[in-house]
Amino acid sequence: MILVIVISYKFYLETVLNILENTFMTLYVIVFIIALIRLPLYKDTPLKYLPIILFITLATEFVGQLLKIGHRDFIFLIYNIYYFLYFSFFFYVFMKVIDVVSFKKCIKIGLAIFWLVFLGDIVFSSILKESFIITYIVGAGILILCIILYYISILQSSLVLVVKNDLLFWISVGLFLFYIGYIPIKIIKTWFYKPDSFFEILLIIQFSLIILMYLFFLTGFLWMKKR
Amino acid sequence: MDEKEIIIIAAIAIPVSLVIIVIVLFSVFSSRKNRLLREQAEAKKVFDRELAESQIEIREETLRNISWELHDNIGQLMTLAKIQSQMALEKPELMTEVSKTIGSGIDELRALSKLINPEALKSLSLKEAVSLEIERFNRLKFIKAELIVKGDIIPIESNIQVIIFRILQEFFSNTIKHSKASSLKVILNYSDEELKITAKDDGIGFEKNDDFMGIGLKNMETRAKLIHSALKIDSIKDKGTALYLDYNFT
């Protein structure tokens, strides 16, 4: 009886994970297409490179899914380079968008720290055989800091009145909620992992966070207005 | 604490903290937005009040000017015409002089009626409104006044124009009433981005703590702030006073 419950529980978890995975992969494609369609509205802002990052994310996830089965070596390489591009891009965006000089300086220092940590990971670990966890956690932490600085700068200006129609605001809400939720999961997955179905609960939260983040991206693209 | 407990705690804490963050974000942004909207409504109210006050003051000033013109200019011409006509009873050849004087009086009346017409006043550009004031000063020999316009004239929104004109009128009024100046020079310098106004007299100047100038200055500064302009008034004792007003079009 207990065995049946355990098997059906595992089956249920796997089904939920499959559904969530398919959902976020579909969302990746939808958001990328809408980002391209709406590009004329934000082509004059630092976010103009966002479709490239969305495409790299989509391609990385897709290649990652394919390589899961066979050549695992390349997964780390691809993801490590992806982290570097992804975080550097968002630091650049926030640095360009925020007007407050002291905040800009903070982000520049954050960017320098991130690049140093990435360099450290290249030197002290293998880019082909290990995931750059420290780079990821430092990048995500600095990104959260950038978003907080961005929110403070919005709250100090009259931009708060039109924030509903601002693409970067929705993008930042999505990123903020995702990384606040995902950093603890990443830490637990890295340092406390044991092959156990319990960890799949965290995967469910992780996939839900991706869906939530992309739903915020989608809202931003659909509600945005040219300034 | 084993890894299962950690996972359970994380599984509960993450969604709960996300919900709290969303609620906090929403309430902070909406309260800030509401505060800003209230401040904007308040600023608009202050602007409207100052605009209405400026309009009333311009009207009062115009009525005062009309009264002076009627008394000092047209009144004098009519008195002269009366004397000439009395003399013409004995010397009929003087009738042409009487006719000339009455003709001048009629011309002055026409010019005045144009000034009184509120529609005409509304449709005037800043340059035309200032120019009328300068012409009046010269005609009534209050002061030797000059207007110089540089650059291509860019129309200004009428509400803003009223405020700018009132600031200048206040300055002119102080120059004529208190400065004992013999000349007044006004420069309107238009560029694509801004209008730089300079008004200078060669009067006795004033100390910043003079009461009448203190109140006038405060009024001018408040109004300049309302139209997001930079106002500077420099005065040197026995040398004169200068006003600098920069209005940004963007």
Task: Report on this structure.
- The complex is a heterodimer of chains A (227) and B (250).
- Chain A is mostly helical and 227 residues long.
- Chain A is 80% helix and 0% strand.
- Chain A contains 8 helices and no strands.
- Chain A has helices spanning 2-37, 39-42, 50-67, 73-97, 101-124, 133-156, 167-191, 199-223.
- In chain A, helix 1 (2-37) runs antiparallel to helix 3, helix 4 (73-97) packs antiparallel against helix 5 and helix 7 runs antiparallel to helix 8.
- The radius of gyration of chain A is 19 Å and the shape is globular.
- The mean pLDDT of chain A is 88.
- Chain B is of the alpha+beta class.
- Chain B has a domain at 142-250: Heat Shock Protein 90 (2-Layer Sandwich).
- Chain B has a 5-stranded mixed beta sheet, covered by helices on one side.
- In chain B, strand 4 (230-236) and strand 5 (240-248) form a beta hairpin.
- Chain B is elongated.
- The model of chain B has no long low-confidence stretch (mean pLDDT 86).
- Classes of the chains: A mainly alpha (227), B alpha+beta (250).
- Chains A and B meet through helix 6, helix 7 and helix 8 of A and helix 1 of B.
Question: What does the secondary structure layout of this molecule look like, with pairings?
Answer:
The complex is a heterodimer of chains A (227) and B (250).
Chain A: H1 2-37, H2 39-42, H3 50-67, H4 73-97, H5 101-124, H6 133-156, H7 167-191, H8 199-223
Helix pairs in contact in A: 1-3, 1-8, 3-4, 4-5, 4-6, 5-6, 6-7, 7-8
Chain B: H1 3-88, H2 95-116, H3 118-123, H4 126-139, E1 144-150, H5 158-179, E2 183-190, E3 194-201, H6 211-226, E4 230-236, E5 240-248
Parallel strand pairs in B: 1-2
Antiparallel strand pairs in B: 2-3, 3-5, 4-5
Helix pairs in contact in B: 1-2, 1-5, 4-5, 5-6
Q: Helical amount among residues of chain A, as a percent range? A: over 70%
Largest sheet of chain A: none
Average pLDDT for all residues of chain B: 86
Strand runs of chain B, count: 5
| Low-pLDDT stretches of chain A | none
State the separation between the terminal residues of chain B, measured CA to CA. 62 Å
Q: Roughly how much helix do the residues of chain B carry, as a percent range?
A: 55-70%
Output the helix-strand order of chain B.
Answer: HHHHEHEEHEE
Number of E strands of chain A: 0
Radius of gyration of chain B, taken over Cα atoms and rounded to an integer in Å: 29 Å
Q: Which range does the strand content of chain B fall in?
A: 15-25%
Q: Report the order of strands and helices of chain A.
A: HHHHHHHH
CATH architectural designation of the domain at 142-250 in chain B: 2-Layer Sandwich
Q: What count of helical segments of chain A does DSSP give?
A: 8
Multimer state? heterodimer
